[in-house]
Prior knowledge:
The chain is of the alpha/beta class and 204 residues long. It has helices at 3-16, 20-30, 65-75, 114-124, 142-158, 168-174, and strands at 35-40, 55-61, 82-85, 99-105, 125-136, 178-186, 196-203.
Amino acid sequence: MGFYRENIFPWLLDHMVTGEKIEAIRDRVVEKATGHVIEIGSGTGANFMSYSDSITSLTTVDPNPGMNKLARRRIKYLEFPVDTREIGCEELPMKDASFDCAVSTLTLCSLRNVDKSLKEIYRVLKPGGRFLFLEHGLSDSESVGRWQRRINPLQRRLCDGCHLNRGIDTLIRAAGFNLDEITNYYLDRVPRAFGYMYEGVATK
C-alpha cells in the first residue's frame, strides 16, 4: 500500500475536504440517502454526520487502512449500524439488489477501474435504487480541460490516483444508470482545473 498512501494521504485528505462550503454541499447530497445505504470510497468518514435519520444501515467500502482508521473515530457517534468493508469496489461481495441507495463523494476520480466499479454499484442497487454523487471532473470549458489534461499525471501521483479529467456524467450513463438530476459548477476559491463539480442523482 505504501507509507504515504496509508499514513500521510488520509490525513491530508481529511483536511482538504473540510470547510463550511464543501460541508454544506455534502449535507445537501448525502441527506437524501434513505434505507440501506452503501457508500463507495468512504475515506475518513467525512460524510457520516450528513446522513439523516432516514438511514436504516450504512455499509462503507474503502480499501485504504489509513482511511478506515480515521473513519472509525466518526463511526462511534452514529446511531445506525455500520458495516465497514476494507475492500475495493471493483468486485463487491454483496448480493444483487441489496441496497436502496449508493453514495459517492469525491471518489470516482480515484477508482482504478471506474467502469467496472460503477457497474458493481448498479448491480448491488435495488430496482429503482438511487445513486447520489458529488464528484469533480472534466470541465465543459476547452481551455480548462486542456489544463486538466496537462496537470493530470502529477495529480495522480500526489493524490493517490485522482484524475482531473473524467467525464462523470458519461461514465455514470455508460454503467446503465438513468441520470435524473445533474448540476455542474465550479467551487468557490478553488482553481478551476481542480474544482469543476458534478452533483446529482441517478437511478437504476
